[in-house]
Structures are given as structure tokens and as C-alpha cells.
């Protein structure tokens, strides 16, 4: 199981009731989005008059992984209301949906993977060119690389057990690859521009494995990772919580945690709150209120 990260520790400090409410907002039924205001939010007195904002009513996306916590906290605790905003949270099925929702105007703001903004600006990796902007980092760490049960049975173990010996880990991973057909050497990430793809390529290359030739990557939405591992779609994946813990505790233990993201790069950025450049230019006061609410939620 992934050890708690600082934001989770913070959430625990707020009390069981708030945590339950916040995480419920994150994992609300797929057919529904959080609507209205909680009692806690209604008790908050706005310090900014909504009438002074260019666009006080916003639709903000989130993806049901652990980094939706700031959105849930801001909604539950009334931080959006505090800064004059009336926010409707929209559950997004994937990181691609979250990104495209901003670009095509369905969402005013939403979290995106760390590489999405650069790709949108430059058109890299076939991305649609769009003036996407990063408002702030909302999430660091909280992710991990999960390998399936056959990899464990073959002898691969969690990263800590190799004590930094990349050669030994690489030999075992290479031996495993050689034991299965090339077409079965498949790993999954949530989006090609996510930090996870960089991690997978960097780590395997450091082990002496060519990440371009030795295996291929699939793009799979976070909630579908565990089930796809269970049915054998891929051997390993990297994703944010809770989809690593779910592979261990749910589905009868279909995998194990090979490495946490923070073991590969301490302090790495994971998710960015994104908006369109036009949103900032046309709604500067609204933009500042949104960022203030999110900063307070992250604290």
C-alpha cells in the first residue's frame, strides 16, 4: 500500500466527517456530479462579492483519483463560495476528457497531466494546438507503478528490495520479458503526456532496457487499470491512487506495487490546474478567485 502523502495527512487532520464527505465527492456515482452547496459551504460568508466577478458561475472538472482532493475540499468547505464563486464539479472519465473539456469550452478549468500543457502549446505527440495555461500545481507524488502477479511469481520484487541496484532489477525484468511473447510485453499509462510515461521510459532505460523496442505502452483511463490487469491486457501500469492499492486489496490481489513515483523523482509535479489563456484574459478577477480557493484547499 502506498504510504500517505502530505495532502492525505492534511485531510485526516480535518476530521473523519470532512474526509468522508470530500472523498465521496471525488467518487460520486459516474452518472452524477456534485451539485448545490453543503451545509459547511452555506455557512461560509463570501469575502468577495460574486457581482464583482466577470464569471462567478464555473464548471470545473475532476478525475476520480487522489488528486481530486483539493477540488472536493474547496467544494465541501466552501472555499469556492468564500471567493465569490459558484462552482459545479464535473466528473471526467479520463485525463483526455479533462484536457479536451477545457480546450473545447465545456469546462472552465480542470486538472491535466503535467505534460498536457506543453503538448497543447507545441502540438507535440499529435496534440491539438491550443493556448492552454497552467494555473498552479495541485498534486505531487501519490502515484505508483504496479506489476501483475505473474511478474511477482517470476521473481520481481518491490523497488526497495533492490537497494538501488539497477542492473539486478534490469536483469530480472529483461529475463521476464524474454519469457513471454513480444506482443504480451505491454505496460499502461493514463496519457502519453503524463509524467508516468516519462517515468516508465526513464526507469527502464536506466535498467538497460530499450523502452521503445522492448515493450509498448497502452493508454487506459485510471478507473479501468485494475480490471484490465485482471483480464491480462497489460503486465504493468503506472497511475495515481487509489488504483495501485486496489490492485493489491481488491480483485483478489492482481498485482503488487513495484515503485512509488517519489522514489523515482522526489518532488515531481503530477497534476496541473489548467485553464485557457482566453479565460485568464477575459476573467482576471474570476481567475484570481479560483486560484485563491484552490490554494486554500491545498493547504
UniProtKB/TrEMBL annotation:
CDD domains documented for this protein: PBP2_NrtA_CpmA_like
GO molecular function of the protein, one example?
Answer: ATP binding
Keywords from UniProt, A to Z, are: ATP-binding, Cell inner membrane, Cell membrane, Ion transport, Membrane, Nucleotide-binding, Transport
Keyword Membrane assigned to the entry: answer is yes
Location of the protein in the cell:
Cell inner membrane
GO terms classed as biological process: monoatomic ion transport
Membrane-crossing residues?
Answer: none
Question: Which InterPro entries would you find in this protein's record?
Answer: NrtA/CpmA_ABC-bd_dom, TAT_signal
Q: Would you tell me the Gene Ontology cellular component terms? A: plasma membrane
What PANTHER family does the database record attribute to this sequence? ALIPHATIC SULFONATES-BINDING PROTEIN-RELATED (PTHR30024), BLL4572 PROTEIN (PTHR30024:SF43)
**What family classification does the UniProt entry report for this protein?**
Belongs to the CmpA/NrtA family.
Question: Know the name of this protein?
Answer: Bicarbonate transport ATP-binding protein CmpC
- Origin organism is Microcystis aeruginosa NIES-2520
| Lineage of source species | Bacteria, Bacillati, Cyanobacteriota, Cyanophyceae, Oscillatoriophycideae
